Amino acid sequence: MGTVLDSHFIALTAIVTVGYQLFFFIIAAFLKYDKVTDFAGSSNFAVICLLTLVIKGSWHFRQVVLTLLVVIWSLRLALFLLMRILQWGEDRRLDETRHNLGKFAVFYIVQGLWAWTVSLPVTVVNASDRDPSIQAEDIIGWILWCVGFSIEAIADQQKLSFKSSLENRGKWCNIGLWKYSRHPNYFGDMLVTWGFFVASAPVLEGAEWLVILGPIFLMLLLLFVSGLPLLEESGDKKFGNLSAYRIYKKRTSPLIPLPQAVYGNLPLWFKAAFLFEFPLYSRHFPQEGPNWRRASQEEIKDELKIG
User: Fold this and answer.
1) For residue 253, what are the β-bridge partners?
2) Considering the chain, what percentage of its residues have pLDDT values greater than 70?
3) In the chain, what is the greatest distance between 2 CA atoms, to the nearest angstrom?
4) pLDDT grade, residue 185 (50/70/90)?
5) Mean pLDDT of the chain
6) How far apart are CA 283 and CA 279, in angstroms?
7) Cα gap 297→240, rounded to integer Å
8) What proportions of the chain, in percent to the nearest 5, are helix, strand and coil?
């Protein structure tokens, strides 16, 4: 059973991913119901890892643990995103793509590529006959997963609760973890995927190390394509003329959670070189002008004290 299509299940998981995404794309595009889009992407991880675990049938301890971690993370994220979109009613990220079949198809292609590449470390582990004893890399990977999963889940819930409150309508989220990072959920996401790679390291040999492309692809996607750039642009356009928001953005790390007192006093070159504060995230940050409203000291204090 372990030699279905290829010994590492690379082709098999690619075909399954294409079919899975195509199924949901048809529902979203032709039935005009794109509320399943995020669910399709996030649940794809669980499908791939469970499938490869069962087909291989080795049931090594490392394989079972890694698959379980993927399934927990995948289904938590998929169900959270599904419940959120059902509550909010629409996904504004898709406003420019849902009515353009070509752009919508590209969105699904990138989503499928995301699911397939990030799953590669666990796919290779599940396909392997090697079963070395538990090593330091396993423990480190599991710890990264625990920390990342906790940060992502907490940040998601904090923002959902914040946005669900009527008194917070028209405000940006700066409570809890969002006081220390402008995108803590993405930071947690990255830690999770690096955890998968590190925990797979004891099994990897030769070209199998190329599965590092999984967490790298996710980082590139979030840092430069569909994650931080889009949200930073949206935030700057909505709140960029508010003094309190400008202070929040300058004092708050874009990704890695840090105290505002620490981050705000770091030099710009250090932020750009080591903390992912790229100029890309300020392209739409308005300069001070006639439309810029200076908030009062009380407003600033209130905004920065929230959370």
Assistant:
1) 181
2) 89
3) 69
4) very high
5) 90
6) 7
7) 17
8) 70, 0, 25
Which residues are within 8 A (CB) of 18 and not within 5 positions of it... i.e. 6 or more apart? 112
Under 8 Å between Cβ of 253 and 181: yes
Report the residue count for the chain.
307
Q: Of 115, 7, 118, 119, which is closest to residue 55 (Cα–Cα)?
A: 7
Single-letter amino acid code for the residue at 69: L
The residues, any chain, with a CB within 8 Å of residue 184's CB and separated by 6 or more, are 151, 152, 154, 155, 177, 178, 257
DSSP letters, 38-64, are HHHHHHHHHHHHHHHHHHH----HHHH
User: Which of helix, strand or coil describes residue 75?
Assistant: helix
pLDDT for 299 equals 46
Please, which pLDDT band fits residue 295 given cuts at 50, 70 and 90? very low
pLDDT of residue 177: 98
Residue holding tokens 């505002």? 260
Buried b (16+ CB within 10 A) or exposed e, 94-129: beebbeeeeebeebbeebbebbbbbbbbbbbbbbbe
Residue type, 66: L
Residue 6, pLDDT score = 77
pLDDT level of residue 25 (50, 70, 90 thresholds): very high
Contact 40, 94 (CB under 8 A): no
Straight-line distance from the first to the last Cα atom of the chain, in angstroms, rounded to the nearest whole number = 53
Is 88 in contact with 59 (CB distance < 8 Å)? no
Q: What amino acid is encoded at 86 in this protein?
A: L
Tokens of 53: 């675990």
Distances in Å between the Cα of 157 and the Cα atoms of 7, 40, 97, 278 are 40, 20, 27, 27
**Dihedral, CA of residue 210, residue 211, residue 215 and residue 218, to nearest 10:** 90
The token pair at 23 is 């199924």
